[in-house]
Every structure is written in structure tokens, then in C-alpha cells.
Amino acid sequence: MKKVQTGQVKEFYSNSCLVKTKVGEFSCIAIKNVVVGDFVEIEIIQDSKKTLGKILKINKRFSKISKLINNKEKLFAANVTHVGILVTPTPRTSSEFIDKWIIKSKISKIKPFIINNKIDIKQDSEYLKKLNIYKDLNLKIIDISAKYLKNTDELLKFLENKCVLFVGNSGAGKSTLTSKIIKKNLKISSLSNDQGVHTTSISSLYEVNQKIKIIDSPGMRDIELTNYSTSQITQGFEEIFKASKYCKFNNCNHIDNDGCNIAKYLLNGEISKSRYNNFIKLVENNNE
Questions:
Q1: What per-residue confidence (pLDDT) applies to 193?
Q2: pLDDT-above-90 percentage for the chain
Q3: Are 76 and 223 in contact (CB under 8 A)?
Q4: % pLDDT > 70, the chain
Q5: What b/e string do you get for 116-151 counting C-beta neighbours within 10 Å, with b at 16 or more?
Q6: pLDDT (mean) for 135-163
Q7: What are phi and psi of 280, to 5 degrees?
Q8: How many CB atoms lie within 10 A of CB 272?
Q9: Averaged over 202-222, what is the pLDDT?
């Protein structure tokens, strides 16, 4: 066995992490800024009790996702390819929640898609109208019932060869969905480092049939978008960005300016009022 191995961080605790390599899994002392999903170089160390690993370096990330905590960006996961936004009629998911995660995903170089969960219960016309807004934007939407495993085959097929982070409000079914897919109850999590039941893991990476990777991160629910530029926020509103190119003035605020092309698109229904309102709210909050 080579003394230096390349692996991926599978679990992360307060001061250690579990790294999976081709030759096995190794408990390693965590180094600064390492997170679940990171690909790392580790040195294998054999002590008197067990084989351990020492992280030598973190390889380049193709994506990373973070959250603002106490005005500081805290990194939660790396090398995620997709964010699955769980949307439910009960509790009702707001369009603001959806739009914020679309923005966050695109800024983080991750592809967002929507999981319409709880299709086993009634979805009223207002809720379906909201979903249709995102269908018209060509955002991938998969209808499922995590509780009763309805249509989960389509979701699993979509997730093949991807690393996904599920996000949703409390009660949206994120833990239920993840537990059903990985066939493990996340509420009772025995970790792989022989520490027994452990509840302080920041996040974990699960593999399904060596085709699907799911990162479960308890801290990633709702997010606040602050300190973002207008151009960054616009990444999540492609239809508004395209319309803004034809505003009469370059410094148009898209609220009450003469010659605003977005106002025209609002009137004819090409831009939804909910998306427009969320766009203006987020821009104003980030320019205070």
C-alpha cells in the first residue's frame, strides 16, 4: 500500500474527519478549511493501535458552498454538482426560498433543480402556478413522494453520476428523502470512527451503488444572501437579466424608471411578479 493516498472526505467532526480512498477508509486529524466532499492527499500512519491518516493537502475544488454565520462565511461542503431544492405544499415553500437557493447554487458553480415533494397530498392551483413559473424557466422539476416512495426511480436516475445536496425548510422531507435513498435512518447515526452514536457531525457524504453521492448537511436550510453584488444576484434571474439589456437607460433601477423594459415584460406576463419582487427585495437588501 502506498504511503500517500488520494481520497475524499466522507464525514467531518469537530477535530477529525473520515477519508475514503481506494484502499480503505481512514480517520484523519482535520486541517484548517477541510470540509465534506473535499478531495485530499493523505499520508498513511501506522501507530500501535490502528492505521490513521494525516491530511497533507486539499486538492482544487470545482465548487464549494457556504453560509453566512455571525457575518462570516462558513464553508459547509465542496465538489457538489447539484442542489435539489425541496418544495412542498405543506408546509408551503415560499418563492423567495426557491429563488435564494437558485442564486446561491449558481454563484457556487452548482446546478439547481426542484424536487416537488409530497405529491400524495393535495396541491392547489396557487401552488401549481408557482411550480409552473420555474417550469417555464426550464428548471428541472421532479415530482415525488419521499414518504411513500412515489416516482423516486426518476429522481434516482437523474442523480446518477452526480453529487447532490438536498435543501428544504423544516418539514419539507429532506431527512426522510435522504434516509430512504441511502437506506439508513439519519436520526440515529452511528459513525465509522468507532465513536458510537454521534450527533455533532457537521455533514456527511453517502454513496449509493457507487453512482450517486449525497451530502447531508444539517446546517444548510434557509440562507441569507448578503454582501452580494447586483450582478451576482442577477445570475439567479436570467429572464430579468435578458429583459434589462433593453432598458432605455443603463442605470435603470427597474422600479420606477421611464423606459424600463422589465416593467413591460411584467405587464405582459413574461416575467412573474413573485420573481420580480424577490429580485428587487434581494438587490435592495444587499445595497443597504
A1: 44
A2: 62
A3: no
A4: 92
A5: bbbbeeebeeebeebbebbeeeebeebbbbbeeeee
A6: 96
A7: -65, -45
A8: 21
A9: 86
Contact 113, 82 (CB under 8 A): yes
Model confidence at 200, pLDDT cuts 50, 70, 90, reads very low
Question: 207: which 3 cell numbers?
Answer: 454513496
- As a dihedral over the C-alpha atoms of residue 145, residue 84, residue 12, residue 221, rounded to 10 degrees, the angle is -90
User: Across the strands, what pairs with 197?
Assistant: 190
Q: What is the pLDDT of residue 14?
A: 73
| Domain 64-216 sits in CATH 3.40.50.300 | yes
Candidates 2.30.30.100, 2.40.50.140, 1.10.238.10, 3.40.50.150; CATH matching 4-58? 2.40.50.140
Top pLDDT among 281 and 190 is at 281
The CATH architecture to which 230-286 belongs is: Orthogonal Bundle (1.10)
pLDDT number for residue 78 = 96
pTM for this prediction: 0.90
Q: Which long-range contacts (CB under 8 A, 24 or more apart) does 50-59 make?
A: 51/24, 51/26, 52/26, 52/27, 52/28, 53/5, 53/7, 53/19, 53/26, 53/27, 53/28, 54/28, 54/29, 55/17, 55/19, 55/28, 55/29, 55/30, 55/31, 56/4, 58/31, 58/33, 58/34, 59/6
